[in-house]
Amino acid sequence: MKPILKIFINAVVAAARIPQLGSAVYVCNLLMAAVIAAAFRAFVAGTDSVSSLAPLFTDFDATLASDFLNRHGEAIGALARAVVPLALLSLAVNVILTGGILSLLSSRQKFSLRGFLRGCGHFAGRFLRVFFLVCLLLAAVGGIMITIFAGLDALLSSPVTAETRGNLIAAIGILATGFMLVVVVMVGDYARVLTVVDDGRSMLKALWSSFRFILRSAAGAFGVQYLFLLVNIGLFLLYLSAEWHTGTGSGFLLGFLFVVQQLVMIARAFLRTALFAGEVELAALSAAERLEAVAPAAAGT
Amino acid sequence: MRIPLLFCTAILGASTPVAAQFQPPLSDRVVAYRIDVRLDEKAKTLEGEEHLTWRNPSTEPVGDLQFHLYLNAFKNTHSTAMKESGGRFVRDDGSKTGGWGYIDVTSIRLQDGAEVRPLANFISPDDSNAADQTVLHVPLPSPVGPGESIGMDIRFTARLPRLSRRTGYSEDFFMIAQWFPKLGVFEPKGMRYAARGAWNCHQFHAATEFYADFGTYDVNMTVPQGFKVGATGVRVHETENSNGTATLTYRAEDVHDFAWVASPRLAERNDTWRDLRIRLLMPPERLFQSWRHVQCVKAALEYMDAHVGRYPYPELTIVDPPGYAAAAGGMEYPTLFTTVSSVLIPEQVRYPELATVHEFIHQYFYGMVASNEFEEAWMDEGFTAYYETRVMDAFYGPKTSAVHLLGFHFGDFEYTRFGYTSMLNPRMAPTATFAWELPSGGGSLTYFKTATILATLKGLIGEETMDSVMTAYFRRWSFRHPCGRDFIAVVNDIVPKTQGEKFGKDWNWFFDQVLYGTGVCDYELSSIRISPVEDDRGYVESDSGTVLRDVRGEVHGTRRSEVTVSRLGEVQLPVEVLVRFSDGSELLEQWDGKARVKVFRYTGTSTVVRAAVDPGMKIPLDINVTNNVKSFEPSTGMLWKYFCKVLFWLQNIFHAAATII
Ligand SMILES: [Zn+2]
């Protein structure tokens, strides 16, 4: 088993070698987010409050913000509700893009738009099925975990110990549920990777194979997953710190912050692609190891 | 039945060998209670014997007594409080059963031995609900003369209800309040709104608090050994009994109620501020954050001392009820209050501080000023909310005192004002409405609108004058049960002395609108218009006589600016308008705020580039401050900032969703 760090580096290199993949993810999300952001900006600019709100440029002001929401809450609510269909559309687009990304990564071909789109189209139906199955699994696992820990809480804690033992059970419950949900996400990811490698048709089977693969290669699979998770969290904290220290108050600072924000989003998109690359590599390595294990045995007979 | 005052004093003196805390007394001490009470923690019952002395403070004979029996509010679904709350205990979802409570007065024996309990009957002065048993009317065989006193021994048993907002038990935590037969207030003619001497003794309501007379309390509480007890007043004695119980004796002077807390699961932290002993009772698991309560209550003591008056009592008990007794949290009693907190609330979210400061400030307006909380709840809750915002904003920062977390922040006054401005119907009723008659949601008028009214008053008269008003009000009316009219009289007295009559001879015009009226205040900077200045035309006078000049033309380099300000609400308040010109100069205009529209006109080489109504936010009652500014200066910075924010967070949401699934 290659060290996890090496898989991580290889994955990042692989993602960087085909920058079009990360860019596609970034641009799709950007476009959809920009629709709402632009609508929001246009709405605020069109209200008679725009001059009063000018001080919000330098710092948040709860009085201005709350009076604005009192007055325009319905319109802002309608805009917020518009996020839901766009988020669903974004999900669907991302699911479809994954087909193109994984097919290019696993075939190690150079980027061609036609190849990418072919990959997207070829796996779209199957990946959408994986998407729905993963949604169901997430809901089921989440529900089971909540039930288990609610039961444990009822069994082991009482109103008198709610703030001590009860909180501890809740904290363990949140961590355990989070862990289990990450497992489901990984099952979904590897199901797609294996589908691309095998061109399999049954997604239930793919999920089952994926689950077995994760059990078999637990150290590598979890290692890669959590390393990427840590890098993402680190990136986010870095951004918060940058925003904290930069503040706003001048056009230059705002421009700088915008650039930082978009660099963060580009990095996140590339990390997403790199995670796929890492998963592809891990799956390939595992397959190779199994072949090696089978080959000598076959040679011996 | 009349007995000399000396006789009562002798009785009390014999049983309470305690040095007086206040000499001379702070209050008129109309009542003296001496109570022995035993708590049965398993049966959740109290058994009490009360010796009560009442002095007739009026100039007319009084032939009856009226007692609050507030535990009967929890007796059944027929009580007025239960009807008002839809048959639910306060802070209850209504799903639980059981937990009913009551108080049964078994005997009222006057000092001459006459038993008057059989003569007593329940009355319902507020709503004629015959089934309500929260006010007991006791006719006396002979009236009590002016200035005379009457003494009596009362026996009662009580079952505590499941913990609701103000009283009851939860597991092993007992919040014992409104638990003994407590006299109402006999208001002599001329006091508050009394046209003739009469008892003011309201029923227990779901949404109102209390009103009782000042006096002394000597209370012996017998509880299981190991129970920690916090109570009104100071502990003067403690004995362990052979039957596994302990008896704690407390004395309280110049208070109008007595409440206590008992539980075996309370840890204690003691602190001091000047000569004051601060006693903090809280669950042991929260002790690590006890400093938060201590820090903010000291800040509040300091601030109130400097801006309103002195907290005179020797002790202050703060109770932070455990989570399972959270329904006891956030309630004030004399020299004792309950606050709210949790181990999960981070330091940057100052809800525990806010609750502690709020309940402490009640010691002034509920505890010492002691207005009638049934009829004029705004005088207690509103004034308390106002000073809560002042203390919190002064100590933790005006824009950060409530929450200051990860760049997001808002101040306590901002939060309080929002409580008013976000009301679905801010015109629903006058603030000065009997609190139990307010429609649902009317509590926002009592708390938040009143606090915003006082902040507006401060904005108009200045902080120094406001402090003069409040110190005078506190000095004149502490321990005297003032009414709204009395507060306004103080304003009318103090403000003209410091501000002259620029706002008029009195401030009735202000309170008539904002307190007794239902209108809202909303000023708008409607428009700025710039137009060229044309040459004079028509028959004009010149050196050569009257000539006709009729050629249209503009005066070169001169422009006319028109700033239009509108009054959109009903409330009329004097307001400032700040006008900025293109040459950078500024002009602060004063407007009486009465007309529906006011136009300010300027002619000159520089034009108006920005105008703001109420630029210093002196009128926080203005229900919408986002229509207060018009400007030719662009707001693009703000627009792009929020574009970037919305864009970035949506990108993150979309990306995270795609990553997870
Ligand atoms: Zn309050």
In short:
The complex is a heterodimer of chains A (301) and B (661). Chain A is mainly alpha-helical and 301 residues long. Chain A contains eight helices and no strands.
Account of the protein in words:
The complex is a heterodimer of chains A (301) and B (661). Chain A has 301 residues and is an all-alpha fold. Chain A is 87% helix and 0% strand. Chain A is built from eight helices and no strands. Chain A is globular. With 661 residues, chain B is α+β, with helices and mostly antiparallel strands. Chain B has four domains: 30-213, no CATH class; 223-368, Zincin-like; 391-514, no CATH class; 523-618 and 624-633, Immunoglobulin-like (Sandwich), CATH 2.60.40. Chain B contains eleven helices and 33 strands. In chain B, strands 4-7-2-1-13-16-15 form a seven-stranded mixed β-sheet, with helices on one face. In chain B, strand 15 and strand 16 (245-255) form a beta hairpin. The longest helix of chain B has 25 residues, at 636-660. The model of chain B is unreliable at 1-17 (pLDDT under 50). Chains A and B meet through helix 2, helix 3, helix 4, helix 5 and helix 7 of A and strand 24, helix 6, strand 33 and helix 11 of B.
Describe the secondary structure blueprint for this structure:
The complex is a heterodimer of chains A (301) and B (661).
Chain A (H helix, E strand, L loop, with lengths): L3 H14 L1 H28 L15 H46 L5 H44 L5 H37 L4 H14 L1 H29 L4 H50 L1
Helix pairs in contact in A: 1-7, 1-8, 2-3, 2-8, 3-4, 3-5, 3-8, 4-5, 5-6, 5-8, 7-8
Chain B lengths: L4 H11 L15 E10 L4 E11 L6 E7 L11 H5 L17 E9 L10 E2 L12 E10 L4 E11 L8 E3 L2 E4 L5 E2 L1 E3 L10 E3 L14 E10 L3 E4 L2 E7 L4 E11 L4 E4 L3 E7 L2 E7 L7 H18 L7 E5 L11 E3 L2 E3 L12 H19 L7 H20 L6 E3 L2 E3 L1 H10 L21 H19 L1 H15 L6 H16 L8 H7 L8 E12 L3 E5 L2 E5 L4 E14 L7 E7 L4 E6 L5 E8 L3 E6 L15 E3 L4 H25 L1
Parallel strand pairs in B: 1-13, 19-20, 20-22
Antiparallel strand pairs in B: 1-2, 2-7, 3-6, 3-10, 4-7, 5-6, 8-9, 9-17, 11-12, 13-16, 14-17, 15-16, 18-19, 21-22, 23-24, 25-28, 26-27, 28-31, 29-30, 29-32, 32-33
Bound molecules: zinc ion.
Zinc ion binds next to helix 4 and helix 5 of chain B.
